[in-house]
Specification:
Blueprint lengths: L12 E5 L6 E2 L2 E2 L3 H15 L3 E5 L17 H10 L4 E4 L13 E4 L13 H9 L3 E4 L10 H9 L2 E4 L1 H14 L6 E5 L4 H14 L2 E4 L1 H10 L14 H10 L1 E3 L4 E4 L12 E4 L9 E5 L1 H12 L3 E5 L12 H12 L3 E4 L2 H9 L8 E2 L4 H7 L5 H12 L1
Parallel strand pairs: 1-4, 1-7, 4-6, 5-6, 7-8, 9-10, 9-15, 10-11, 15-16, 16-17
Antiparallel strand pairs: 2-3, 12-13, 12-14
Helix pairs in contact: 3-4, 4-13, 6-8, 7-8, 9-10
The chain binds 3-phosphoglyceric acid.
Amino acid sequence: VIKMTDLDLNGKKVLIRQDLNVPLDGSEITSAVRIEASLPTIKLALEQGAAVMVMSHLGRPTEGEFDAAASLQPVVDYIAKAIDAPVKLVSDYLDGYEAKAGEVAIFENVRFNVGEKKNDEALSKKLAALCDVFVNDAFGTAHRAQASTHGVAKFAPVACAGPLLAGELAALAKALDNPERPLVAIVGGSKVSTKLTVLDALSKIADTLVVGGGISNTFVASAGNNVGNSLYEEDLIPEAQRLCKETEVVFAQDVTTTKEGFSDWNHNSKTEVKLPNEIQDDEEIIDYGPKSAARAAEIIKGAKTILWNGPCGVFEFDAFAKGTEVVARAIAESEGFSIAGGGDTLAAIDKFDLADDVSYISTGGGAFLEFVEGKVLPAVEILEQRAKEA
Ligand code: 3PG
């Protein structure tokens, strides 16, 4: 692909697609990781003398309607504070916008535009007509073929990859294409079914696959144990057994359980550490036991490359967070190259304040998983096509 950093942006109208889809509580941004990761690109374009236009989606609003809850206003306010240049939110831009050098215009949520999701050609052409150079810097949305990610790249005079997108692709390639070994992948989260293609892909390239959370429960069950009330997927036991034949899979050898369910769990509730064959019908696994966490940490410490997606227990509650914490700390302390991605994973890294100790934190959720699965990311593919034609 052509990189933004290879182009002369002086005096150019530059339209940057970013993924500023941040979690909000009302109008309060609860994690600014994606905005912080996007700021250097805006600053760089400004420094180069570009007239900067930024666009992003936020949430999943209904097309053709303004929805105040999905407005980019809170994001614009955040960026205005972080950047030493005039920053404004622009709602009317499809029929032309006079961008000025040294200023940042942030276009209102692209998902308010009719035709965004179906990658409408007329809409894509309107977006493309706004700029001299289109920069895709939205790794988190690269798995979507939409007007602001794909169509616009097709019709813009020049289409290139921004530093964040290029950096994410390079970090993921380093971890997956020709990794230093051993490569250890940690996949947690609640269900095997939602991560099956990822587990499958990783079982072919990882030396060791460490599974945690509800995913581990299905493996515990596949080893012939009664998992009581735990979240698990009986119908995927054969898949779990198959994955264990493909590569070394590490799952819980001891577990933390509760009888009270974690949805209405209160902090005085009792937890117990048990062996997998001791779980009672009325018990539920909510975390690794200490031996399993220590074993996972040991394996991680010996790794040269580490890929992490998904927590190992219900880490939102302190008493159920030990497994995730031990794993996260082992990753942070490892000398190997580590890459982490996914909303819950980033929240866990945040909770234990380890962001500076992981080699690379991906801003992608779905896009991160699709890349790991080996899927083509359409927004990247179109940039490759454009580079070939150039
Ligand atoms: C994400 O949060 O994973 C991206 O911003 C994509 O959002 P979407 O799943 O609504 O397309």
